[in-house]
Amino acid sequence: MLKESGQNNKLISLEEAAALVQDGDILALGGNVLHRSPSAFVRELARQGKKKLEVVKTAGAYDIDLLAAAGCLRAVSAGFVGYENEFGLCPHYRKRVEQGLVEAKEHACYTVITSLRAASYGVSFLPVNGLQGSDLPAQRGFRQVADPYTGETYVAIPKIEPDWAVIHVHEADKWGNSRIYGQKFEDVLMAKAAKRVIITAEKIIGSHSFEQQPERTDIPGFLVHAVVHSPKGALPASCPGLYPYDKNEIARFLQCREPREIAEYVAASAKKDRGLKTAFGERRW
What average pLDDT does the structure give for the chain? Predict the structure, then answer.
């Protein structure tokens, strides 16, 4: 059990949580495109100089682009990587892939989901009845499997078992019980598929709220290894119901081209991401 300030709970700082991730780990990042991504956590990974990470996500944007820009990535398993709006594709990610520095493990969004679902079920693969006429199975080396009951042939999608799922939520308690408002995307599945889960939360609330409404618990605390209080931790992505995505901040990031500019960008965000530690050990933003 992780502790802070002598309390027997899972609350730790952003810096401590990012330090749990080791070079070479596979990370499932929650959210989708520019919505509810764990952006503050990703910036902290960049500040700590993590290397050779692999990211798993159906559709990524700023999070994957920033990790690529900071030289943290070795591979990405995704169905789509781009800003999906006026900002277009992710230039840093595209550049690293074209340079051969990052492997783009191409997927359909549904094959990412199937891979995570296989891991959550504890099996090495799951069959998909689809992808007929697609080059994807051959490109990714997906094998075929015969249905033992009907003899029909399906594509066998191998599992992806992330070392960590990092998920930004609206509310969590100190034990990791978590609540998401709005679209949950693949986040609950990621929490079940990963070996360990880190939650970053807009608000830390009392456990009595989860006790009163257990049906509103999206991710149960027993799946969670660590919890980080991270107000506005999705920015410049949105957090539905709390704030929209920040176009100006995305534009400011995309203006950074050189490694020095990227390093300055993530360093300048440190105070905002981490908060200030008070004399009583609490964080203030």
Answer: 94
**Bridge partners, residue 53, by sequence:** 73
pLDDT tens profile 138-184: 999 999 999 999 999 999 999 999 999 999 999 999 999 999 999 99
Q: In this structure, what token pair is assigned to residue 83? A: 């800003």
Burial 5-26 (b: 16+ CB within 10 A, else e): eeeebbbbbbeebbebbeeebb
Model pLDDT, residue 198: 98
Tokens coding 50? 């993590």
Kindly tell me the sign of the dihedral angle through the C-alpha atoms of 162, 167, 171, 172.
positive
| CA dist., res. 222 & res. 6, Å (int) | 20
- C-beta of residue 157 within 8 angstroms of C-beta of residue 131: no
Helix%, strand%, coil% for the chain, nearest 5 = 30, 30, 40
Closest CA to 163 of 8, 50, 15, 21: 21
The pTM assigned to this predicted structure is: 0.94
Q: How far is CA 230 from CA 45, 76, 114, 159, in A?
A: 14, 25, 30, 31
Is the pLDDT reported for residue 281 higher than 70? Answer: no
Interacting residues of 92 by C-beta distance below 8 A, sequence separation 6+: 65, 66, 68, 69, 262
CA distances from 37 to 129, 168, 207, 235 (A): 30, 6, 24, 8
Residues 6+ apart with CB under 8 A from 237: 31, 33, 34, 35, 36, 37, 39, 61, 62, 63, 245
| Dist. CA 184–CA 176, nearest whole Å | 16
